[in-house]
C-alpha cells in the first residue's frame, strides 16, 4: 500500500491524527473493518472508478471533522473540514488513475471553497520539477495548474514508487503550512509505493491536539 503520514512536531510517539488510504478497494464492509481496528477514529470512504481506486480517511476522534457535502459521492475523492472555526483547514485526497485526466476543475472548486487546503494523493503525474523520471501528460497539466496557484509540493525528488524513481504520490500545501516542515520516506511495508511521513506547520487547539496525519494508498500496480 502507498502511505503518506502527516506527523506532529511532537514526534512519532504520538498517535496519528489522520490516516488516509488511497488507491485501495473500499466499500461499506471494508469501512466496518477499519472502524473495528481504528476504534479511536472516525471513518470516511468513497468508492472507486476502477479496480485500483477508492479512498478512505480515518480521523482521530479528538479532532473535529466534517465531510464537505458539496464534494460528497465523487468517486475516488474525499474532502474534509478539519479543526475548529479559528483554525479550520480542508484536507482533500484522491486517487487519479494513469488513464484518467487530472481533475483540475475539481481542484479549483476545492480551493475556491477554502484556500487553506492540503491536497494529497496518487496523482500518477511525473514531472522533472518534482520527480526524477520522464515527464508525462498528466504532469504537464498539473505543472501548468500549479503555476497559477500558491501551493507548493512538499515531497520533491524522493521516489514513492518501488518500481521506478518516480514521485507520483504528492502532498500539496500552502507555503505557510510548509515553512518549517520536514518529510521522510520509509521502507516499503509490502506495497508498490513507499510510505511518506510529513510534519506540517498546523496548530490545532482545544480537543484537536497536534497528532500525526497518515495517508495509506492501496496496494496495486498503478
Automatic annotation (TrEMBL):
Record Pfam families: Exo_endo_phos_2
Protein name: Endonuclease/exonuclease/phosphatase domain-containing protein
Superkingdom of source: Eukaryota
InterPro entries hit by this protein: Endo/exonu/phosph_ase_sf (IPR036691), Endo/exonuclease/phosphatase (IPR005135)
Occurrences of domain Endonuclease/exonuclease/phosphatase (ranges): 92-197
Organism: Didymodactylos carnosus
One biological process term in Gene Ontology: larval heart development
UniProt GO molecular function: catalytic activity
GO CC terms, sorted: extracellular matrix
Amino acid at each position: 500500500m502507498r502511505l503518506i503520514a502527516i506527523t506532529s512536531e511532537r514526534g512519532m510517539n504520538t498517535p496519528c491524527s489522520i490516516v488516509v488510504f488511497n488507491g485501495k478497494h473500499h466499500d461499506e464492509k471494508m469501512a466496518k473493518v477499519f472502524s473495528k481496528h481504528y476504534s479511536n477514529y472516525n471513518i470516511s470512504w468513497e468508492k472507486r472508478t476502477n479496480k485500483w481506486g477508492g479512498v478512505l480517511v480515518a480521523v482521530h476522534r479528538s479532532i473535529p471533522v466534517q465531510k464537505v457535502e458539496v464534494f460528497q459521492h465523487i468517486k475516488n475523492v474525499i474532502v474534509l473540514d478539519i479543526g475548529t472555526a479559528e483554525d479550520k483547514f480542508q484536507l482533500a485526497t484522491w486517487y487519479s488513475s494513469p488513464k484518467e485526466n487530472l481533475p483540475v476543475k475539481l481542484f479549483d472548486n476545492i480551493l475556491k471553497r477554502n484556500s487553506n487546503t492540503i491536497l494529497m494523493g496518487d496523482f500518477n503525474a511525473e514531472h522533472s520539477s518534482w520527480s526524477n523520471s520522464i515527464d508525462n501528460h498528466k504532469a504537464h497539466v498539473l505543472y501548468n495548474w500549479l503555476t497559477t496557484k500558491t501551493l507548493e509540493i512538499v515531497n520533491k525528488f524522493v521516489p514513492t514508487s518501488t518500481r521506478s524513481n518516480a514521485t507520483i504520490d504528492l502532498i500539496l500545501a500552502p507555503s505557510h503550512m510548509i515553512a518549517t516542515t520536514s518529510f521522510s520516506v520509509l521502507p516499503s511495508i509490502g506495497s508498490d509505493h513507499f510510505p511518506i511521513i510529513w510534519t506540517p506547520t498546523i496548530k490545532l487547539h482545544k480537543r484537536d491536539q497536534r497528532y500525526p496525519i497518515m495517508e495509506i494508498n492501496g496496494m496495486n500496480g498503478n
